[in-house]
Amino acid sequence: MENEKLIHPFKPVVFEDSEILILGTFPSIKSFENNFYYSHPRNQFWNILSIIFNDKKPENIREKIEFLKRHKIALWDAVCECVRKDGNSRDDNLEIIKPCNIENLLKTYKNIQKVAVTSRTAENVIKKHFKNSQFSILNSPLYLPSPSPLNARLKPDQKAEIWKKLLELT
Length: 170
What we know:
The chain is α/β, with parallel strands linked by helices. It has a single domain, classed as Uracil-DNA glycosylase-like domain (Uracil-DNA Glycosylase, subunit E). The chain has seven helices and seven strands. It has helices at residues 29-34, 45-53, 61-70, 102-108, 120-129, 136-139, 156-166; strands at residues 5-7, 20-24, 73-77, 79-84, 94-99, 114-117, 142-143. It has a four-stranded parallel sheet with strand order 3-2-6-7. It has a three-stranded antiparallel sheet with strand order 1-4-5, covered by helices on one side. The protein starts with a strand and ends with a helix.
């Protein structure tokens, strides 16, 4: 997976009643291996959502999809084509070729009211490629502190509190 063009391997997880779209940057190597979003065992994404919603942490793909549906969350990434310059999943190793067609997703799923990103790279991709979007929610995506194990300065419960506030979940 090093220095070759990579195409996003997953479709967005989205439902007719999804209200929040959470965008990562691009699937990690572990996510490629496990065939689903946020699959690195030390990534805090699923822990954070479990804390926010006071719900059991989903353990497998089926449970994760059901969890997202139950809480009206859509999941995708900002980048659909890139080159991974080094053999790791860090965002700074990605050479971005093409963003995902987020505007098309928002046209199709009209209940989505908020767009949030889980990395500064995803935020920058959105701001660069969708700065003149007809969708105002793309003009200023909500930045959620990264659930990556590389962002360990905040504990999952601290991140959950920030996410909950930013997403206006009570």
